[in-house]
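Thread amino acids onto this structure.
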């Protein structure tokens, strides 16, 4: 018996050793995958650059031997090289005193003159000018960078540059909280307002009427702005920590109140506009003067995002009226926005989800009534490319118009203002990205799918007819690496009727006879849709971790955008839903089709709103999700930025905020959880994560916390990625991960 026991133990040890070695190999595959797939796709990534107002454009052709800068003449249907690559390479090597091989030539930030004789570009941190005809290369100095301004900085509108009148005779500006004008010829200043104070001041952004006789401006009742305080524990330039401060307005905070005021320059008279139609402001913005200078348009978003109005103010009487009003019992998704006045200000083109789909409407500005609905159907207008007032025609992109295919695939169309003449300009199946010439006669169309390589063509923008092919991607070298294309997969959602679309990623050594644990990557909310639709050889969030022996999935459940208003509305005051009933149904359907999917071992991860959802998954659906990695999550919507959270959760702050809070519901945790936070996150307040930790500790719950010094809003970076690998290997495979010194982790 002892001999058998020792033999069994010996076999077990050998098995464990082999398994450990296999995991080391799997980790090394995961860490090296990005480099392995790098530069394996050719004749792809076409991004055309139209040259000025010409019908010429250039793009980079990615060949196995390096980059070739191509020039295309749409009128002549010709394609040549943009410049002599050998001459420029030799000139650049000589000027920089660094040998550059022609295959290595790269000239970022390239700008081409309309006559093609001058190229401006950047190389090795310096700006260069290349005169083609003279073969002359000129050093134009060091490349300079401006530090990007913090996204959440609140513009109080107290300061600004003087605004010059259309006739160039006067400037308008604010001084000592009041509005002034200055005669640009004599230099004489004149005060227009005298009632401005530190608490109630005039905006430094006044708007001149086209005839230079009137000014429209907001008088603002200011409020104290909430600050976010961040401690940088390990600054590079000093030993002691640093305190950073950011403007950070949160749900429920007091907001400024704006009152429109119209000034008559000749008389100095002012009209203070009634705010009866724009009380309880989330935002009141504008102004847009109409061509006749008789009235001005502003836009109002009521706090709570359930009323949105386009308002017109008479410059003569100060009277205000509603031109367009959007209302919703949930939210007006003002992210889906477009407005343009046409026909000399007599009409307005407006975008709305009022019929459950996102469409365009033509309004009579004088009556405030709809002339006609321009686009209509069970599909979704995405973006407006161009409005041609003379032809009364619109170029736009849309998705969902073609039946029996992925409804998120975008195509481009033309249509007349009266709703007739709908023409598809990019008919092939795929996700299209188009770039139009300045005169809108031509377009470059690049289309692909996650499992179909890109094709680039030049088209006639009137009818979509292909004028000439440009490039067709070659992925033969990519396929030699063992790369497997992600698979689009569709299944019914919670109602058994609605199609839910997603993708499935397999590891490069995929074996259909095995059972694989599953990891879902999540991001939700009606800001957009999040499943990739275009071809990409390497997906940072999904590709590498699959190499450890996982199936990766991602899908757009209800509560995301670009389907219908009803599809979006699922999230209203209910962000914790995150489309989970649809996600669970989708995953079960995938498992029914594919035996290699193990639904007893499903993990989930995400960052930001995805971090909030990832933790919510194990709080509310522990029967499905067995482990969660949540980075930089907005775990309580009262702690996060105002615009995202009041948009979907409403105002005033009510019990729904607590009901959706991961902090309030932390006691429900029964599954492994890893929380990650960057100490300098100025997108989502880091305290949101720390408050979750506090609640978990009070509830005596086990969890892991990773704090990243010096990091901002992040999924975790290379360190966090390795922690994520280990977390899911341990909790979904029940395996102790290899030691960090044993594998080729990113440095």
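Threaded sequence (747 positions):
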């Amino acid at each position: 018996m002892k001999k058998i026991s020792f033999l069994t133990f010996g076999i077990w040890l050998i098995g464990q050793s082999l398994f450990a070695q296999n995991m080391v190999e799997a980790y090394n595959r995961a860490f090296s995958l990005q480099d392995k797939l790098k530069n394996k796709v050719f004749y792809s990534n076409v991004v055309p650059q139209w040259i000025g107002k010409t019908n010429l454009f250039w793009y980079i052709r990615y060949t196995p031997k390096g980059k070739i800068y191509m020039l295309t003449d749409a009128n002549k249907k010709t394609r040549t090289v943009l410049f002599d690559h050998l001459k420029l390479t030799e000139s650049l090597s000589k000027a920089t005193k660094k040998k550059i091989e022609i295959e290595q030539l790269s000239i970022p930030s390239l700008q081409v003159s309309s006559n093609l004789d001058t190229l401006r570009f950047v190389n090795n941190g310096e700006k260069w000018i290349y005169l083609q005809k003279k073969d002359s290369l000129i050093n134009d100095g060091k490349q300079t960078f401006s530090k990007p301004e913090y996204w959440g900085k609140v513009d109080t509108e107290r300061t600004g540059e003087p605004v010059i009148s259309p006739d160039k005779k006067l400037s308008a500006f604010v001084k000592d909280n009041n509005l002034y004008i200055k005669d640009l010829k004599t230099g004489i200043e004149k005060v227009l307002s005298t009632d401005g104070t530190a608490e109630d001041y005039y905006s430094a952004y006044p708007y001149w009427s086209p005839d230079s006789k009137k000014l429209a401006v907001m008088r603002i009742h200011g409020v104290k702005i909430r600050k976010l305080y961040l401690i940088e524990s390990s600054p590079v330039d000093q030993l002691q920590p640093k305190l950073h401060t950011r403007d950070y307005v949160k749900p429920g905070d007091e907001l400024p109140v704006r009152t429109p005021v119209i000034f008559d320059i000749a008389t100095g008279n002012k009209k203070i506009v009634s705010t009866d139609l724009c009380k309880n402001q989330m935002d009141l913005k504008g102004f847009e003067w109409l061509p006749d200078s008789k009235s001005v348009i502003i836009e109002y978003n009521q706090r709570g995002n359930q009323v949105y109005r386009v308002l017109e103010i008479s410059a003569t009487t100060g009277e205000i009226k509603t031109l367009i009003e959007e209302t919703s019992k949930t939210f007006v998704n003002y992210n889906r926005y477009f407005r343009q006045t046409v026909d000399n200000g007599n009409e307005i083109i407006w975008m709305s989800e009022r019929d459950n789909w996102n469409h365009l409407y033509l309004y009579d500005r004088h009556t405030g009534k709809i002339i006609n609905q321009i686009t209509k159907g069970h599909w979704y207008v995405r973006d407006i490319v161009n409005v041609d007032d003379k032809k009364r025609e619109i170029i736009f992109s849309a998705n969902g118009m073609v039946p029996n295919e992925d409804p998120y695939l975008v195509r481009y169309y033309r249509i007349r203002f009266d709703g007739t003449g709908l023409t598809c300009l990019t008919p092939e199946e795929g996700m299209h990205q188009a770039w139009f010439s300045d005169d809108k006669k031509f377009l470059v169309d690049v289309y692909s799918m996650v499992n179909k390589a890109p094709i680039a063509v030049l088209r006639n923008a009137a009818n979509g007819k292909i004028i000439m092919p440009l490039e067709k991607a070659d992925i033969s070298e990519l396929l030699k690496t063992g790369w497997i294309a992600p698979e689009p997969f569709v299944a019914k959602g919670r109602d058994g009727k609605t199609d839910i679309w997603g993708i499935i990623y397999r590891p490069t050594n995929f074996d259909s006879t095995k059972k694989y644990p599953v990891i879902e990557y999540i991001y939700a909310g009606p800001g957009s849709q999040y499943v990739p639709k275009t071809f990409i050889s390497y997906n940072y969030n999904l590709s590498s971790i699959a190499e450890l022996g996982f199936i990766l999935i991602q899908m757009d459940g209800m509560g995301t955008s670009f389907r219908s208003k009803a599809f979006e509305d699922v999230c209203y005051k209910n962000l914790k839903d995150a489309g989970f009933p649809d996600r669970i149904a989708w995953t079960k359907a995938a498992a029914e089709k594919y035996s290699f999917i193990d639904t007893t071992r499903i993990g989930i991860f995400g960052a930001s709103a995805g971090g909030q959802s990832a933790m919510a998954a194990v709080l509310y659906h522990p029967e499905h999700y067995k482990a969660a990695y949540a980075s930089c999550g907005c775990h309580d919507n009262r702690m996060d930025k105002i615009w995202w959270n009041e948009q979907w959760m409403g105002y005033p702050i009510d019990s729904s905020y607590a009901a959706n809070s991961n902090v309030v519901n932390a006691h429900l945790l029964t599954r492994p959880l890893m929380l990650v936070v960057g100490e300098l996150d100025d997108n989502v307040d880091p305290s949101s994560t720390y408050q979750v930790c506090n609640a978990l500790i009070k509830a005596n719950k086990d969890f892991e916390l990773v704090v990243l010094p010096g990091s901002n809003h992040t999924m975790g970076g290379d360190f966090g990625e390795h922690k994520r690998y280990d977390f899911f290997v341990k909790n979904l495979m029940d395996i102790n991960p290899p030691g960090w010194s044993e594998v080729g982790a990113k440095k």
